[in-house]
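Figure-free illustration: sequence to structure, shown twice.
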Amino acid sequence: MIHRKTDKEIEVMRESNQIVSDVHRLLMPRVKPGVSLTELDTMAEEFIRANGARPAFKGYGSGSKVIPPFPSTLCISIDDEVVHGIPTDRVLREGEIVSIDVGTEKNGFFGDGAITLPVGITDEKKQRLMDVTKEALYRGIEQALPGNHLHDVSAAIQEYVEAHGFSIVRDLVGHGIGKSLHEEPPVPNFGRKGTGPLLDVGMTIAIEPMVNFGGHRVTIDANGWTVRTRDGSPSAHFEHTVCISKDGPVLFTNHFERSHG
Protein backbone atom coordinates (compact mmCIF):
# COMPACT_ATOMS: atom_id res chain seq x y z
CA MET A 1 0.00 0.00 0.00
CA ILE A 2 1.30 3.45 -0.97
CA HIS A 3 1.07 5.99 1.87
CA ARG A 4 0.34 9.60 0.94
CA LYS A 5 1.61 12.05 3.54
CA THR A 6 -0.37 14.89 5.09
CA ASP A 7 1.04 18.40 5.15
CA LYS A 8 1.97 17.91 8.81
CA GLU A 9 3.76 14.63 8.09
CA ILE A 10 5.64 16.23 5.23
CA GLU A 11 6.98 18.90 7.56
CA VAL A 12 8.21 16.24 9.99
CA MET A 13 9.87 14.39 7.14
CA ARG A 14 11.67 17.53 6.06
CA GLU A 15 13.48 17.61 9.41
CA SER A 16 14.81 14.06 9.22
CA ASN A 17 15.94 14.62 5.66
CA GLN A 18 17.61 17.90 6.53
CA ILE A 19 19.78 15.97 8.97
CA VAL A 20 20.75 13.62 6.11
CA SER A 21 21.79 16.65 4.07
CA ASP A 22 23.71 18.14 6.97
CA VAL A 23 25.62 14.90 7.52
CA HIS A 24 26.72 14.90 3.90
CA ARG A 25 27.82 18.52 4.14
CA LEU A 26 29.80 17.66 7.26
CA LEU A 27 31.55 14.73 5.60
CA MET A 28 32.17 16.00 2.08
CA PRO A 29 35.27 18.11 2.89
CA ARG A 30 36.63 15.24 4.97
CA VAL A 31 36.65 12.74 2.10
CA LYS A 32 40.34 12.73 1.25
CA PRO A 33 43.26 10.30 1.13
CA GLY A 34 44.25 8.84 4.49
CA VAL A 35 40.89 9.26 6.24
CA SER A 36 39.48 6.02 7.65
CA LEU A 37 35.94 4.85 6.99
CA THR A 38 35.29 4.38 10.72
CA GLU A 39 36.30 7.99 11.31
CA LEU A 40 33.60 9.16 8.89
CA ASP A 41 31.08 6.74 10.37
CA THR A 42 31.70 7.87 13.96
CA MET A 43 31.45 11.52 12.96
CA ALA A 44 28.12 10.89 11.25
CA GLU A 45 26.61 8.98 14.15
CA GLU A 46 27.62 11.60 16.69
CA PHE A 47 26.10 14.36 14.55
CA ILE A 48 22.84 12.48 13.97
CA ARG A 49 22.34 11.71 17.66
CA ALA A 50 23.30 15.26 18.67
CA ASN A 51 20.42 16.46 16.48
CA GLY A 52 17.83 14.29 18.20
CA ALA A 53 17.67 11.61 15.54
CA ARG A 54 18.94 8.05 15.24
CA PRO A 55 20.91 6.35 12.48
CA ALA A 56 18.36 4.45 10.39
CA PHE A 57 20.80 1.92 8.97
CA LYS A 58 22.45 0.83 12.22
CA GLY A 59 20.81 -2.40 13.29
CA TYR A 60 18.72 -2.59 10.11
CA GLY A 61 17.69 -6.14 9.31
CA SER A 62 17.82 -7.29 12.92
CA GLY A 63 14.86 -9.59 12.32
CA SER A 64 16.66 -11.59 9.66
CA LYS A 65 17.82 -15.13 10.36
CA VAL A 66 20.01 -15.09 7.25
CA ILE A 67 22.35 -12.14 7.70
CA PRO A 68 23.46 -10.10 10.73
CA PRO A 69 21.98 -6.61 11.25
CA PHE A 70 23.83 -3.81 9.51
CA PRO A 71 26.51 -2.70 11.99
CA SER A 72 27.16 0.92 11.05
CA THR A 73 25.61 4.36 10.67
CA LEU A 74 26.78 4.87 7.08
CA CYS A 75 26.97 2.71 4.02
CA ILE A 76 30.37 3.60 2.52
CA SER A 77 31.04 1.97 -0.83
CA ILE A 78 34.31 2.34 -2.73
CA ASP A 79 35.01 1.90 -6.46
CA ASP A 80 33.47 -1.47 -7.47
CA GLU A 81 31.26 -1.56 -4.36
CA VAL A 82 27.80 -0.49 -5.51
CA VAL A 83 26.04 -0.05 -2.15
CA HIS A 84 25.97 -1.26 1.47
CA GLY A 85 29.70 -1.09 2.08
CA ILE A 86 30.46 -1.57 5.79
CA PRO A 87 32.88 0.99 7.29
CA THR A 88 36.16 -0.44 8.61
CA ASP A 89 39.54 0.98 9.59
CA ARG A 90 40.50 0.98 5.89
CA VAL A 91 41.62 4.41 4.72
CA LEU A 92 40.60 6.21 1.55
CA ARG A 93 43.14 6.28 -1.26
CA GLU A 94 43.88 8.86 -3.94
CA GLY A 95 41.87 8.32 -7.12
CA GLU A 96 39.07 6.24 -5.62
CA ILE A 97 35.41 7.18 -5.72
CA VAL A 98 33.32 6.68 -2.61
CA SER A 99 29.56 6.55 -2.15
CA ILE A 100 28.23 7.71 1.23
CA ASP A 101 24.64 6.67 1.94
CA VAL A 102 22.95 8.16 5.03
CA GLY A 103 19.65 7.28 6.67
CA THR A 104 18.02 8.94 9.69
CA GLU A 105 14.85 8.66 11.75
CA LYS A 106 13.40 11.48 13.82
CA ASN A 107 9.94 11.82 15.32
CA GLY A 108 8.80 8.66 13.58
CA PHE A 109 9.78 9.62 10.03
CA PHE A 110 12.77 8.70 7.92
CA GLY A 111 15.27 10.47 5.68
CA ASP A 112 17.60 8.93 3.11
CA GLY A 113 20.20 10.22 0.67
CA ALA A 114 23.46 9.30 -1.03
CA ILE A 115 26.30 10.97 -2.87
CA THR A 116 29.41 9.71 -4.67
CA LEU A 117 32.60 11.72 -4.30
CA PRO A 118 36.15 11.56 -5.67
CA VAL A 119 38.99 10.93 -3.25
CA GLY A 120 41.55 13.53 -4.24
CA ILE A 121 42.01 13.56 -8.02
CA THR A 122 40.32 10.72 -9.87
CA ASP A 123 40.51 9.71 -13.52
CA GLU A 124 38.28 10.95 -16.31
CA LYS A 125 36.21 7.78 -16.64
CA LYS A 126 35.24 7.79 -12.97
CA GLN A 127 34.39 11.48 -13.10
CA ARG A 128 32.18 10.93 -16.14
CA LEU A 129 30.46 8.02 -14.37
CA MET A 130 29.66 10.26 -11.41
CA ASP A 131 28.47 13.11 -13.64
CA VAL A 132 26.16 10.86 -15.65
CA THR A 133 24.73 9.17 -12.55
CA LYS A 134 23.95 12.49 -10.90
CA GLU A 135 22.35 13.91 -14.03
CA ALA A 136 20.33 10.71 -14.51
CA LEU A 137 18.89 11.20 -11.03
CA TYR A 138 17.73 14.71 -11.94
CA ARG A 139 16.28 13.47 -15.24
CA GLY A 140 14.23 11.02 -13.18
CA ILE A 141 13.19 13.65 -10.65
CA GLU A 142 11.86 15.84 -13.48
CA GLN A 143 9.30 13.11 -14.21
CA ALA A 144 8.10 12.87 -10.58
CA LEU A 145 4.90 14.78 -11.35
CA PRO A 146 1.29 14.21 -10.28
CA GLY A 147 -0.46 12.19 -12.98
CA ASN A 148 2.72 10.67 -14.37
CA HIS A 149 3.44 6.99 -13.96
CA LEU A 150 6.21 5.83 -11.66
CA HIS A 151 8.09 4.20 -14.50
CA ASP A 152 8.26 7.53 -16.32
CA VAL A 153 10.87 8.29 -13.65
CA SER A 154 12.53 4.93 -14.23
CA ALA A 155 12.62 5.24 -18.00
CA ALA A 156 14.14 8.73 -17.90
CA ILE A 157 16.99 7.44 -15.73
CA GLN A 158 17.61 4.37 -17.87
CA GLU A 159 17.55 6.27 -21.15
CA TYR A 160 20.09 8.83 -20.01
CA VAL A 161 22.46 6.29 -18.47
CA GLU A 162 22.43 3.91 -21.42
CA ALA A 163 22.78 6.74 -23.93
CA HIS A 164 26.13 7.47 -22.28
CA GLY A 165 27.33 3.88 -22.47
CA PHE A 166 26.88 2.89 -18.83
CA SER A 167 24.59 0.31 -17.25
CA ILE A 168 21.85 0.44 -14.62
CA VAL A 169 21.93 -2.03 -11.75
CA ARG A 170 18.78 -4.16 -12.02
CA ASP A 171 18.91 -6.04 -8.71
CA LEU A 172 18.49 -2.94 -6.53
CA VAL A 173 15.90 -0.16 -6.67
CA GLY A 174 14.73 2.98 -4.92
CA HIS A 175 11.71 2.95 -2.63
CA GLY A 176 8.91 4.75 -0.96
CA ILE A 177 9.84 6.32 2.37
CA GLY A 178 8.02 7.81 5.35
CA LYS A 179 7.14 6.10 8.62
CA SER A 180 9.33 3.24 7.41
CA LEU A 181 12.71 3.49 5.73
CA HIS A 182 11.44 1.29 2.90
CA GLU A 183 7.80 1.60 1.89
CA GLU A 184 5.79 0.91 -1.22
CA PRO A 185 6.31 1.48 -4.07
CA PRO A 186 9.64 0.12 -5.28
CA VAL A 187 11.27 2.69 -7.57
CA PRO A 188 13.31 0.94 -10.27
CA ASN A 189 15.91 2.82 -12.32
CA PHE A 190 14.79 1.08 -15.50
CA GLY A 191 11.38 0.63 -17.05
CA ARG A 192 8.87 1.53 -19.73
CA LYS A 193 7.13 4.90 -19.88
CA GLY A 194 3.44 4.89 -19.06
CA THR A 195 3.63 1.93 -16.68
CA GLY A 196 3.69 1.56 -12.92
CA PRO A 197 1.52 3.26 -10.30
CA LEU A 198 0.22 6.77 -10.90
CA LEU A 199 2.09 9.43 -8.98
CA ASP A 200 -0.05 11.54 -6.67
CA VAL A 201 0.34 14.51 -4.35
CA GLY A 202 1.75 13.50 -0.97
CA MET A 203 3.74 10.50 -2.17
CA THR A 204 7.34 10.47 -0.95
CA ILE A 205 9.96 8.38 -2.72
CA ALA A 206 13.70 7.85 -2.60
CA ILE A 207 15.07 7.92 -6.16
CA GLU A 208 18.55 6.43 -6.32
CA PRO A 209 20.23 5.39 -9.57
CA MET A 210 23.10 2.93 -9.11
CA VAL A 211 25.18 3.00 -12.28
CA ASN A 212 28.07 0.77 -13.33
CA PHE A 213 30.87 1.64 -15.70
CA GLY A 214 30.74 -1.91 -17.06
CA GLY A 215 27.95 -4.49 -17.01
CA HIS A 216 24.86 -4.30 -14.80
CA ARG A 217 25.38 -7.58 -12.95
CA VAL A 218 26.35 -7.55 -9.28
CA THR A 219 27.44 -9.93 -6.53
CA ILE A 220 27.10 -9.82 -2.74
CA ASP A 221 30.07 -10.24 -0.42
CA ALA A 222 30.25 -12.93 2.25
CA ASN A 223 29.18 -10.37 4.88
CA GLY A 224 25.69 -10.55 3.35
CA TRP A 225 25.52 -6.79 2.74
CA THR A 226 28.12 -5.31 0.42
CA VAL A 227 27.04 -5.32 -3.22
CA ARG A 228 29.75 -4.97 -5.85
CA THR A 229 29.97 -5.10 -9.63
CA ARG A 230 30.52 -8.59 -10.97
CA ASP A 231 33.09 -7.42 -13.51
CA GLY A 232 35.03 -5.25 -11.04
CA SER A 233 34.18 -1.98 -12.79
CA PRO A 234 33.51 1.16 -10.73
CA SER A 235 29.99 2.13 -9.71
CA ALA A 236 28.35 5.40 -8.66
CA HIS A 237 25.27 6.08 -6.54
CA PHE A 238 23.27 9.28 -5.99
CA GLU A 239 20.00 9.56 -4.07
CA HIS A 240 17.45 12.22 -3.17
CA THR A 241 14.26 11.84 -1.16
CA VAL A 242 11.50 13.52 -3.16
CA CYS A 243 7.95 14.58 -2.39
CA ILE A 244 5.33 14.72 -5.14
CA SER A 245 3.53 18.06 -4.82
CA LYS A 246 0.90 19.80 -6.92
CA ASP A 247 3.64 22.12 -8.13
CA GLY A 248 6.03 19.30 -9.05
CA PRO A 249 8.80 17.39 -7.30
CA VAL A 250 10.17 18.82 -4.05
CA LEU A 251 13.60 17.70 -2.83
CA PHE A 252 13.63 16.86 0.86
CA THR A 253 17.38 16.29 0.68
CA ASN A 254 19.61 19.05 -0.66
CA HIS A 255 23.15 17.83 -0.03
CA PHE A 256 24.16 18.28 -3.66
CA GLU A 257 22.87 20.22 -6.65
CA ARG A 258 22.55 19.51 -10.31
CA SER A 259 25.79 20.37 -12.09
CA HIS A 260 25.83 18.44 -15.37
CA GLY A 261 23.43 18.75 -18.20
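We now fold a second protein in the same way, so the two outputs can be compared directly.
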Amino acid sequence: MAKTFVSNKDESVRMFKSDFLEFFSHIHWSVPVIAWSPVIIGLFVLCAMAEGILATAGFFVVGAFLWTLSEYILHRFVFHYHPKSAAGKKLHFIMHGVHHDYPQDSTRLVMPLGISVPIAIVFYFLFRILLMPLGGDYYLGLFSGFIAGYLAYDMIHYATHHMPMRGRIGKFLKQYHMKHHYVDGDHGYGVSNPLWDHVFHTVPKK
Protein backbone atom coordinates (compact mmCIF):
# COMPACT_ATOMS: atom_id res chain seq x y z
CA MET A 1 0.00 0.00 0.00
CA ALA A 2 1.29 3.46 -0.89
CA LYS A 3 2.36 5.54 2.08
CA THR A 4 0.29 8.65 2.78
CA PHE A 5 2.26 11.76 3.70
CA VAL A 6 0.58 14.18 6.08
CA SER A 7 2.23 17.51 6.85
CA ASN A 8 1.65 21.12 7.89
CA LYS A 9 -0.54 21.85 4.86
CA ASP A 10 -0.19 25.42 3.65
CA GLU A 11 1.22 26.61 6.98
CA SER A 12 3.57 29.54 6.51
CA VAL A 13 5.99 31.65 8.53
CA ARG A 14 7.12 35.26 8.36
CA MET A 15 10.74 35.59 7.16
CA PHE A 16 11.32 39.35 7.03
CA LYS A 17 10.53 42.25 9.34
CA SER A 18 10.06 44.45 6.26
CA ASP A 19 6.54 44.16 4.83
CA PHE A 20 7.99 44.92 1.39
CA LEU A 21 10.47 42.03 1.48
CA GLU A 22 7.94 39.72 3.08
CA PHE A 23 5.43 40.43 0.31
CA PHE A 24 7.92 39.50 -2.41
CA SER A 25 9.01 36.33 -0.60
CA HIS A 26 5.64 34.85 -1.58
CA ILE A 27 4.76 33.97 -5.16
CA HIS A 28 1.80 32.28 -6.88
CA TRP A 29 2.70 29.22 -8.94
CA SER A 30 1.40 30.81 -12.14
CA VAL A 31 3.80 33.79 -12.04
CA PRO A 32 6.84 31.90 -13.45
CA VAL A 33 4.65 30.52 -16.26
CA ILE A 34 3.43 34.00 -17.18
CA ALA A 35 6.88 35.57 -16.86
CA TRP A 36 9.08 32.95 -18.52
CA SER A 37 6.89 31.46 -21.27
CA PRO A 38 7.22 34.53 -23.57
CA VAL A 39 11.00 34.51 -22.96
CA ILE A 40 11.27 30.84 -23.92
CA ILE A 41 9.17 31.23 -27.05
CA GLY A 42 10.75 34.54 -28.08
CA LEU A 43 14.33 33.28 -27.79
CA PHE A 44 13.48 30.06 -29.62
CA VAL A 45 11.91 31.99 -32.49
CA LEU A 46 14.84 34.43 -32.73
CA CYS A 47 17.31 31.55 -32.84
CA ALA A 48 15.24 29.63 -35.41
CA MET A 49 15.05 32.70 -37.66
CA ALA A 50 18.82 33.09 -37.52
CA GLU A 51 20.08 29.50 -37.41
CA GLY A 52 17.21 27.31 -38.61
CA ILE A 53 14.65 25.21 -36.78
CA LEU A 54 16.67 21.97 -36.58
CA ALA A 55 19.78 23.56 -35.07
CA THR A 56 17.62 25.55 -32.67
CA ALA A 57 15.70 22.45 -31.59
CA GLY A 58 18.98 20.63 -30.99
CA PHE A 59 20.40 23.37 -28.80
CA PHE A 60 17.03 23.65 -27.03
CA VAL A 61 17.19 19.97 -26.04
CA VAL A 62 20.80 20.36 -24.87
CA GLY A 63 19.80 23.40 -22.80
CA ALA A 64 16.96 21.51 -21.13
CA PHE A 65 19.35 18.66 -20.35
CA LEU A 66 21.89 21.09 -18.87
CA TRP A 67 19.15 22.39 -16.59
CA THR A 68 18.66 18.93 -15.06
CA LEU A 69 22.34 18.89 -14.05
CA SER A 70 22.12 22.47 -12.74
CA GLU A 71 19.00 21.53 -10.76
CA TYR A 72 20.88 18.70 -9.08
CA ILE A 73 24.01 20.73 -8.34
CA LEU A 74 22.08 23.71 -6.97
CA HIS A 75 19.83 21.54 -4.82
CA ARG A 76 22.60 19.37 -3.41
CA PHE A 77 25.54 21.75 -3.00
CA VAL A 78 23.89 25.17 -2.60
CA PHE A 79 20.45 24.62 -1.08
CA HIS A 80 21.69 21.82 1.20
CA TYR A 81 24.93 23.47 2.22
CA HIS A 82 25.15 23.71 6.02
CA PRO A 83 26.75 27.05 6.98
CA LYS A 84 28.34 27.63 10.37
CA SER A 85 27.82 31.40 10.83
CA ALA A 86 24.56 32.97 12.00
CA ALA A 87 24.32 35.05 8.83
CA GLY A 88 24.93 31.97 6.70
CA LYS A 89 22.27 30.01 8.54
CA LYS A 90 19.77 32.82 8.04
CA LEU A 91 20.57 33.01 4.32
CA HIS A 92 20.23 29.24 4.03
CA PHE A 93 16.85 29.35 5.77
CA ILE A 94 15.63 32.04 3.35
CA MET A 95 16.91 30.15 0.30
CA HIS A 96 15.77 26.62 1.13
CA GLY A 97 15.50 25.88 4.84
CA VAL A 98 12.06 27.45 5.05
CA HIS A 99 10.85 25.03 2.38
CA HIS A 100 11.92 22.03 4.46
CA ASP A 101 10.42 23.47 7.64
CA TYR A 102 7.16 24.41 5.87
CA PRO A 103 7.09 22.11 2.82
CA GLN A 104 3.42 22.66 2.03
CA ASP A 105 3.55 26.46 1.97
CA SER A 106 2.01 26.96 -1.46
CA THR A 107 3.37 30.49 -1.86
CA ARG A 108 6.99 29.45 -1.37
CA LEU A 109 7.19 26.45 -3.68
CA VAL A 110 8.26 28.15 -6.90
CA MET A 111 11.23 30.48 -7.11
CA PRO A 112 10.50 34.23 -6.70
CA LEU A 113 11.45 36.33 -9.71
CA GLY A 114 13.81 38.33 -7.52
CA ILE A 115 16.00 35.22 -7.34
CA SER A 116 15.31 33.47 -10.65
CA VAL A 117 15.89 36.53 -12.87
CA PRO A 118 19.44 37.32 -11.61
CA ILE A 119 20.40 33.64 -11.85
CA ALA A 120 18.98 33.48 -15.38
CA ILE A 121 20.99 36.55 -16.41
CA VAL A 122 24.20 34.91 -15.20
CA PHE A 123 23.49 31.76 -17.23
CA TYR A 124 22.49 33.82 -20.28
CA PHE A 125 25.90 35.51 -20.45
CA LEU A 126 27.67 32.27 -19.55
CA PHE A 127 26.08 30.47 -22.50
CA ARG A 128 26.77 33.44 -24.77
CA ILE A 129 30.47 33.38 -23.84
CA LEU A 130 30.79 29.59 -24.09
CA LEU A 131 29.18 29.46 -27.55
CA MET A 132 31.00 32.52 -28.88
CA PRO A 133 33.48 30.37 -30.87
CA LEU A 134 30.55 28.97 -32.90
CA GLY A 135 29.38 32.41 -33.92
CA GLY A 136 25.73 33.08 -34.67
CA ASP A 137 22.87 33.00 -32.17
CA TYR A 138 22.95 29.38 -31.05
CA TYR A 139 23.19 30.48 -27.43
CA LEU A 140 19.61 31.76 -27.69
CA GLY A 141 18.32 28.25 -28.41
CA LEU A 142 20.46 26.81 -25.63
CA PHE A 143 19.25 29.37 -23.12
CA SER A 144 15.64 28.90 -24.26
CA GLY A 145 15.85 25.18 -23.51
CA PHE A 146 17.58 25.85 -20.18
CA ILE A 147 14.77 28.16 -19.05
CA ALA A 148 12.16 25.68 -20.29
CA GLY A 149 13.83 23.01 -18.16
CA TYR A 150 13.75 25.33 -15.16
CA LEU A 151 10.07 26.11 -15.71
CA ALA A 152 9.23 22.41 -15.97
CA TYR A 153 11.11 21.82 -12.72
CA ASP A 154 9.23 24.60 -10.94
CA MET A 155 5.84 23.26 -12.06
CA ILE A 156 6.74 19.66 -11.20
CA HIS A 157 7.95 20.78 -7.78
CA TYR A 158 4.68 22.59 -7.11
CA ALA A 159 2.68 19.61 -8.35
CA THR A 160 4.49 17.13 -6.09
CA HIS A 161 3.35 19.14 -3.08
CA HIS A 162 -0.12 20.31 -4.09
CA MET A 163 -1.51 18.12 -6.87
CA PRO A 164 -2.59 14.47 -6.90
CA MET A 165 -0.04 13.52 -9.63
CA ARG A 166 -1.91 10.57 -11.10
CA GLY A 167 -0.27 8.11 -13.46
CA ARG A 168 2.93 6.10 -13.11
CA ILE A 169 5.36 8.96 -13.74
CA GLY A 170 3.43 11.46 -11.64
CA LYS A 171 3.10 9.11 -8.68
CA PHE A 172 6.77 8.18 -8.92
CA LEU A 173 7.94 11.81 -8.93
CA LYS A 174 5.65 12.72 -6.05
CA GLN A 175 6.76 9.80 -3.86
CA TYR A 176 10.40 10.34 -4.83
CA HIS A 177 10.34 13.97 -3.70
CA MET A 178 8.34 13.24 -0.56
CA LYS A 179 11.05 10.75 0.46
CA HIS A 180 13.52 13.64 0.28
CA HIS A 181 11.31 15.70 2.60
CA TYR A 182 10.04 13.15 5.08
CA VAL A 183 12.40 10.15 4.97
CA ASP A 184 15.92 11.02 3.81
CA GLY A 185 16.88 14.67 3.28
CA ASP A 186 20.45 13.75 2.31
CA HIS A 187 19.39 11.88 -0.82
CA GLY A 188 16.95 12.39 -3.69
CA TYR A 189 18.09 15.81 -4.89
CA GLY A 190 16.51 15.44 -8.31
CA VAL A 191 13.00 16.88 -8.43
CA SER A 192 12.07 16.86 -12.11
CA ASN A 193 13.86 13.52 -12.62
CA PRO A 194 16.15 11.08 -10.73
CA LEU A 195 18.86 10.84 -13.43
CA TRP A 196 21.70 12.58 -11.60
CA ASP A 197 20.87 10.87 -8.31
CA HIS A 198 21.64 7.61 -10.07
CA VAL A 199 24.82 9.03 -11.63
CA PHE A 200 26.14 10.39 -8.31
CA HIS A 201 24.72 7.61 -6.09
CA THR A 202 22.31 9.74 -4.07
CA VAL A 203 19.13 7.75 -4.76
CA PRO A 204 17.07 7.43 -1.52
CA LYS A 205 17.38 4.04 0.11
CA LYS A 206 14.31 1.85 -0.17
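Summary for the second example: The first helix runs from residue 19 to 24.
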